[in-house]
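Re: Re: token formats

Sure, here are both.
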Amino acid sequence: MSIVVRRRLPIGAEPSSEGVHFRVWAPSRRNVEVAIEQFSPVRLASESNGYFSGMVGFAQPGMRYWFRLDDAAHLFPDPASRFQPEGPHGPSQIVSPFWYSWKDDSWPGVSIEGQVLYEMHIGTFTKEGTWNTARELLPELAALGITLLEIMPVADFPGRFGWGYDGVNLFAPTHLYGAPDDFRAFVDRAHAVGLGVVLDVVYNHLGPDGNYLKEFSPAYFTNRYENEWGEPINFDSNDSAGVREFFLSNACYWIEEFHLDGLRLDATQQMFDSSPEHILASITQEARRAAGKRSIVFVGENEPQRAQLARSPGAGGYGLDAIWNDDFHHTTRVALTGRTEAYYSDYCGSPQELISAIKWGFLFQGQYYTWHHQRRGTSALDLAPRTFVNYIQNHDQIANSIDGARLHQVSAFGQYKAITALLLLGPGTPMLFQGQEYGASTPFLYFSDHKKELAALVQQGRTDFLAQFPSIASMRGEFVASAPQDPATFERCKLNHAERRDNKYWVALHQDLLKLRRNDPVFHAQRSDWIHGAVLGDSAFVLRFFGNTHGDRLLLVNLGRDLPLRPAPEPLLAPPDDAQWEMLWCSEYPRYGGSGCPPMRKGPWKIPGHCAVVMQSRNL
């Protein structure tokens, strides 16, 4: 007699009081067996929809298993394996999500409003590169003012190190960082100190090594589209139902079993889908249902800058909460470095660009983009400022240099502090990259540990990609010294947290700005409709925040030399009636390693060079 099983998710190995229930989608196979350690293989029952399933009474959590397909000699790991203790080519392990005792019952989840993101790579965040060691540093991030961690991909991948974007076991947290329960304990600890956690997931391709999905069904992939990194995922053909269920289940799995507060979706422009409901919309809806009463957030990366992603389903959108804003990064980097090569060639870094990026989010919303020889973006004027995740550093942009240099290392000290103020006080959702808060000296390079033949191809591909920068292409010999597959490349990227204690200027700068952002009602409001801006000089501008009953604020940013405002025919500089301006904050305070700020009270103002100043209106 068959046993009726109520599963939490439609695929994978799920323990219960009767044993372990296995279910796998393999529509191209005649039969499937599960081989558990030293026991004889057990044949799974074929369902009419391409699934094979069955209860195995003697199986229990901790045991390792494989699938045998059509009685072949070769064994394969579970496509929905919850853990690969020996990596993608080894056996899968049965995992119980109930063994971990959660302590976050009162955690309500997160919404995008008021968040300060922190992008983190677990393998380099600490010397040991584990969940357990990273967990110990979470209170320091919370004390700084970080509110939401964005963890780079952890789906298991081959080799000893990597960024995670070549994951192949999408349900299995990589064994390199610890066991699944270590990940759970990390999230639990984050919630305990007031931090949310979102996970970066890659639903646009799988890695080139260790991907066995085709063994179960070629329908996982399609040749209808062209993908930058491999075969496109099949989300929209007649035989795509099992594929869609696989990825929808994966999104729900992270939310349910790891109590995550949302997902960051990588390169969504490479998720091709002509279905009536786009897979992105399905993911956001299903995962929110899986979260129950908890509020979760979805952040997307979308190079074409399609505003549709962040509109509600009712408005024809996909329901994401926020989108990475490369435009903000590109214009600020040009402003600080003056370099306009490759994909920076459409940016000037001018005061007006910086004002527009703060006010409107994306700079390109349908204009012609010369680097791509076509229009870029769609109108996003209706999107709330919190929709735009702004940053001046992230994993990609730091690595896209000849030696993984961080922005503060290639720009002037004062200018960088001023741009940091613009980032952290603007109405968008700011994001820092690990170590940025204390001016980390460690680089972040591209690293991946592949087999010899594949490693050579990856290194060549990386070299070819960086060749778009003429300054880098002329120095390829130095790039070879940081070969992605070299363990030394990976080791160089590990943070040295002693710098958090030593670099007190950087820590104080970020801590004070985040406190101002959190406690000042005008900056905290994230209201772009309260903001107007004006260019004051070739390298200077003012943003006026009209704070209604809270009074007004000025953010003066000068990336050039000292600027005397004589004359000052700009109405945004005028104080409200019966009020005067007084200084609230300055990036040149000695506390931040600066040389001091003039009082800027009566008479003509002089905005210090390489400086940001915040003024507040005070009633007379």
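Second one below.
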Amino acid sequence: MAGGIGSIARVYVTAIWPLALAVLLLLHGSVARPGAALAVILATSSVRILLDVVSFFGVPVSVPGLPIFLPAAVSSSVDLRTIAPMILPLCLAMTGIGSTNVRRFWAFVMTVAVFAGIIFGASRMALFRGFFIVLVYFLFQRRIVWLASVLAAGAVGVVAINANPDYLYGLPQAVRRSFIGVVAPSDFTDIHKSIEGSNRWHFDLAAMGFRRWTRNPATLSVGNAVRAPYVDTDTDLSYEEMIERAVNMGGYESGLWTVLAILGSLGAFLYLRVFCALGRPLLSILWHDRVSSPMLALAFIAVASVADWLVFSPLAGGFPTLVIPAMALATAALRDHKDGERQEADASAVAVKTRPLDHRMQGPP
């Protein structure tokens, strides 16, 4: 038997804890050394991605006790499609702000490894998300040549794959699945048959999300209750039963419909209000100063994560679980930075005012 109140609570906790953590960070958080924090995150993320990439090739990797010291270092091949797009903004930001050439080179290596993880993750949407995040980075850095080069390379790649889509059959299944998303439907290839079931599943979940959200004025406003009926896991479920079970548990596999169907318009408005309140100052300073310091790297990670969630939420994702804490962390870092500048300015002003007095107190030579 499976299901129960614990499964229901897990869904609501996933929706609420990012907001609670953001409030705690804004009220009591302090980011005194953002550079050190980013270095630690990059180190643990590196272990995680490298273990995932190695495990993709069928090499079992198990380091006893490692998750205790590096909580992010938990290897899973399926983990690639989820975690790689989340780590990519960090790696891109660190390529430009590393304090040494070694750190910048390592961040570049990890950027390449993350893209490999995205390709190995067997997710069409993860590939589009990774490409989108790279474009966002070059846009904020105002590196127009690099931005145009990435767009041109992407266009050439799409044209080349569509010129001979059957070439993808020679690639590993996970890699082939990642690139199928750029292949246009055609009567000359049947490569899309392998994802017809996945397409139907996501389309039906989205349709059910819209239907449940618009069921009546109450669900339109505050959403639907999550239900976790007890189901015998040994019983084979029909497709309709699997859809119904996923919907009852809030498993819409779409950020947009997860929020609207479970929390309603009020919940969506709350999330958007938080995005605007926290994101506007970060967006302004990031556009003005680019990614040029650890504090601005945190701002980029937050802004890129928000943009990624907003653009792709109709097609993938869930609650913005990591987006809101990232924004709160960057906001706290920005606040601490401004407070430090203000204190330095006040100290300088006091020093200037007291200098003549000190000179007079010394008396004539």
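The CA atoms of residues 359 and 365 lie 11 Å apart. Residues 31-189 form one domain.
- S.
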